[in-house]
Amino acid sequence: MAAPPRKKAFASRGGEILKYYLTNMFYVYVLQSLSDAGFYIGYSADLKKRIRDHMQRAAVATKNRGRWKLIYYAAYIDSADANDI
Predict the structure, then answer these.
(1) What percent of the chain has pLDDT over 90?
(2) Whose CA is closest to 31, among 40, 21, 18, 22?
(3) What's this model's pTM, rounded to 2 decimal places?
């Protein structure tokens, strides 16, 4: 009788690694002001929260320049890579 197939060890660790990277990303983003067409470049580990802060005028850096539109973002695994932009 044949032995049952073995699970590959890396499969379970791969899921944990993927989960880690998906929850620990660093983002560089570009906003464009809808009032003066100017740009703002930012960095955050929580992109959704940071964009929400900009939209609700809770971010000190952009609160006096009107409404914003997200025009670009890039995700990085390493914060040093995101900071080098």
Answers:
(1) 56
(2) 40
(3) 0.71
